[in-house]
């Protein structure tokens, strides 16, 4: 029998593979998937971000309601993760550290450049996003952006919490991970290998199998797709 194929690479270095709607975020993140393309951002692409080790922060074009200072910020990873579920599925071993950095630098950047004081930090649930690039909203405590926090702070819409010190980043990152696990299932110490672990209607990044209806066309279905997902 031929030897089994090598396991997929244990990597989180995903290049952008989306469409024009998310191109601006790709360019602000300086992701290699959009290198060399004309700037798609209304605010321009140069000099509009604060750069951190693995993330960038920039001003949100949407204003923060109920805030005396209405400027809100967005912090995104440089690597392409479409949403919190994608991160939990495809890069679980880096999830806590990435979220911690996003929270810490979202707060610090806001306090140093926008206004002092506590902030509200929010992350959309995977099913409630308008831009398919994982992003953290930072705005004044007591304010609102994109309907967040929702009345009752409903977990199926978003995770939100108030933050007033960088030292809280670790604790709040753990809360985000716990929220994602409750929403989408447990973390594995590797990328999923089949549809049971991945869930149906999920495309895999390059070099991984997929569990969506398009996988037959691209010939990248996971081994259990027919059994687990074909009828879903």
Q: Poorly predicted ranges (pLDDT <50, ≥5 residues)?
A: none
The helix/strand series, from N terminus to C terminus, equals HEEEHHEEEHHHH
Number of strands: 6
How far apart, in Å, are the first and last alpha carbons? 33 Å
Helical residues, percent: 25-40%
Q: Structural class, judged by helices and strands?
A: alpha+beta
Summarize the main sheet: 6 strands, antiparallel
Q: For the CA atoms, what is the radius of gyration?
A: 18 Å
Task: Report the total helices.
Answer: 7
How would you describe the shape?
globular
Strand order of the largest sheet: 1-2-3-5-4-6
**Strand content range:** 5-15%
Average pLDDT across residues?
Answer: 91
Structural account:
- This protein has about 230 residues and is of the alpha+beta class.
- About 25% of the residues lie in helices and about 15% in strands.
- The chain has seven helices and six strands, in the order H-E-E-E-H-H-E-E-E-H-H-H-H.
- It has helices spanning about 25-30, 85-90, 95-115, 170-185, 195-200, 215-220, 225-230; strands spanning about 50, 55-60, 75, 120-125, 135-140, 160-165.
- The chain has a six-stranded antiparallel sheet, with helices on both faces.
- A hairpin with a 3-residue loop joins strand 1 and strand 2 (about 55-60).
- The longest helix has 19 residues, at about 95-115.
């Amino acid at each position: 029998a031929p030897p089994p194929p090598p396991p997929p690479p244990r990597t989180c270095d995903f290049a952008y593979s989306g469409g024009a709607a998310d191109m601006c975020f790709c360019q602000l993140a300086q992701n290699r998937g959009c290198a060399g393309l004309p700037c798609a951002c209304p605010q321009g692409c140069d000099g509009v971000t604060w750069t951190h080790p693995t993330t960038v922060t920039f001003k949100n074009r949407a204003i923060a309601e109920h805030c005396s200072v209405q400027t809100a910020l967005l912090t995104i990873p440089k690597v392409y993760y479409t949403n919190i579920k994608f991160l939990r599925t495809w890069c679980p071993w880096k999830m806590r550290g990435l979220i911690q950095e996003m929270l810490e630098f979202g707060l610090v950047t806001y306090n140093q450049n926008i206004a002092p004081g506590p902030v509200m930090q929010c992350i959309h649930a995977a099913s409630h996003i308008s831009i398919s690039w994982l992003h953290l909203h930072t705005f004044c405590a007591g304010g609102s952006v994109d309907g967040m926090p929702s009345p009752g702070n409903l977990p199926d819409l978003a995770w939100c919490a108030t933050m007033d010190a960088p030292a809280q980043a670790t604790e709040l990152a753990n809360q985000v991970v716990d929220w994602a696990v409750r929403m989408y299932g447990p973390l594995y110490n590797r990328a999923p290998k089949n549809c049971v672990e991945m869930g149906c209607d999920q495309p895999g990044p390059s070099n991984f199998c997929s569990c969506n209806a398009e996988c037959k066309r691209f010939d990248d279905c996971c081994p259990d797709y027919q059994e687990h997902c074909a009828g879903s």
